[in-house]
Known about the structure:
The chain is mostly helical. The chain has helices at about 1-15, 20-35, 40-45, 50-60, 65-75, 80-90, 95-105, 110-125, 130-135, 145-160, 165-175, 180-195, 200-205, 210-220, 225-240. The chain has 15 helices and no strands.
Amino acid sequence: AEREALSRAMAAKLGGELALPARIWLIKQLKDIGRDEAVPALAAQLANQEVRERARKALTNIATDKAFAAIRTELARADTPAWRAALINSLAYATDKASVQAVVKSAADRDEAVQDAAIRALGRMGDPSGIPVVAAAMAKGAEGAQRVATEAYLCLAEARVESGEKATALGMYRKLLDARGHIRCAAIIGVGRAGGAKELDTIFGLLGDEDARVRGAALEALGFLPARDVSQAMIARMKT
């Protein structure tokens, strides 16, 4: 009750004519103690060029549906690519469908930095509606943009494992087994996490790879598979 009363009092002061240092100080306090009662006052500060970045961070820290709705409203009227990208970075912490769809829409932005921010955000959000958008981004644009999309795709696959949709995740990981570097290693470990005994032949085959990192990833993947199946398969291979 005391927190809310103090937050409301500060939010009311924030709406008045304040010197910049005082405005910054109030936003900092509301970032730490504010909840929904502080959102309207902070949302109003998003129009102030001097403090809007601080207000964005405060709303992100509040992290309620009301706070994310205010960020989405600002995103719809954001005037520069850098500001749009910053707002998308905030929405990456949201889980509501409205925020996911706002980020999906931003993935089609004409600015590459905004596209990258949206793709990264979709990976962090983990919502399945982002999968086709991120998958499409893996096959177009500059190499850096494709790398961003591929890493986001791995995050989405991980989210499918965590939500129990292992068959979907396995199909996603399998698409990256021919990738290079850490992406391939992550996909191999993902196959172990999402798959079962049927994946043993694939993983045992990777144990003979020339790249020590790939061999290490294959060993780690084995650790996620059913122990009895792995042991029996090892014994059978030791005979040859």
